[in-house]
Amino acid sequence: MSGDPDFSPRYFRIEQTLRAQIAKSRPHDPLPSEPELAREHGVSRMTARAAVTQLVNDGLVYRAPGRGTFVAVPSGPRRADHLIRLSEEIRKQGKRPWAKVVVAELRPPTTIEATRLRLRKGDVFAIHRVRFADDEPIAFERAMYPGTVGDLLAADLSRSVHEALVKLGHTPVHGTSTIRAEAATEEDARELGVPAGSALLIEERLILDQNERPLELSESRYAGDRYRLDVAFGVEPLVQ
Question: In what residue span(s) does the HTH gntR-type domain sit (predicted)?
Fold first, then answer.
């Protein structure tokens, strides 16, 4: 394919033209459609699509099915094997972390919540928040905590909940997580300011405290164009 005179040089020129346009654009600004790019540059749609796909792979733009291609927000990395508070990650990027509280209540747990948090009785604190880096929403977070942790609702929930838990005598130590991709719901779209149906990175976490007791059960729904996970791994030797 690289030897195709229609594909390689023109594909590269389209990509460079779009990179220059992206540098002058704001997050979520639309890019020309692939048919428009093909007509403008006199190439096939396959060539135009290849140029856009490279920009998607580089994290510079994102596709919204049925809507078009848009400029992405520069994403911040996180090691998938480290338990790091999102607020710390945001500060390391030189931005201000804060949260908008959507729900904060003490209520009976669902069966799944009671099982995962090992609760035989009692309520849970349900705290739903939108996490921001400066003025950009990064994640829509739903978290549950055992009602026995203390008066969590008295804490400033626009700041780090983990810091509030430490002050109450519960230190997050380690945990497990499950990561998957999912399309944004209407609620996600409203809270995160992304198109409904766009890609989200979903992380479900169970965090234990210093006494090996379940402390937090959460689901964080990250805007796919604003966040990424970096994974370090080893390679098992081949079995001869």
Answer: 8-74
Q: Is 163 exposed, middle or buried (0-12, 13-18, 19+ CB in 10 A)?
A: middle
Which pLDDT value is given to residue 6? 42
Neighbours of 58 (CB within 10 A): 12
3-state SS record for 200-211: EEEEEEEEECCC
Q: Give 111's DSSP letter.
A: H
211-229 pLDDT, tens digit per residue, is 999 999 999 999 988 776 6
Please tell me the distance from the alpha carbon of residue 93 to that of residue 129, in angstroms, as a whole number.
21
Contact 116, 214 (CB under 8 A): yes
Q: What is the mean pLDDT of residues 94-114?
A: 93
In a domain, 77, yes or no: no
Are both 135 and 23 inside the same structural domain? no
- Say whether both 133 and 198 belong to one domain: yes
- Give the whole-angstrom CA distance, residue 145 versus residue 103: 13
Given 42, 71, 100, which residue is the final one in a domain? 71
Query: Which residue reads 């626009």 in tokens?
Result: 158
Q: How many structural domains does the chain have?
A: 2
Contacts of 7 (CB under 8 A, 6+ apart): 1, 46, 47, 50
Is the pLDDT confidence value at 4 over 50?
A: no
**Residues 142, 102 contacting (CB under 8 angstroms):** no
The CATH number of the domain where 52 resides is what? 1.10.10.10
Question: What range defines the domain where residue 16 resides?
Answer: 8-71
CB atoms within 10 A of CB 57: 9
Specify whether the CB–CB gap between 75 and 230 falls below 8 A: no
Check whether 79 has a pLDDT greater than 70. no
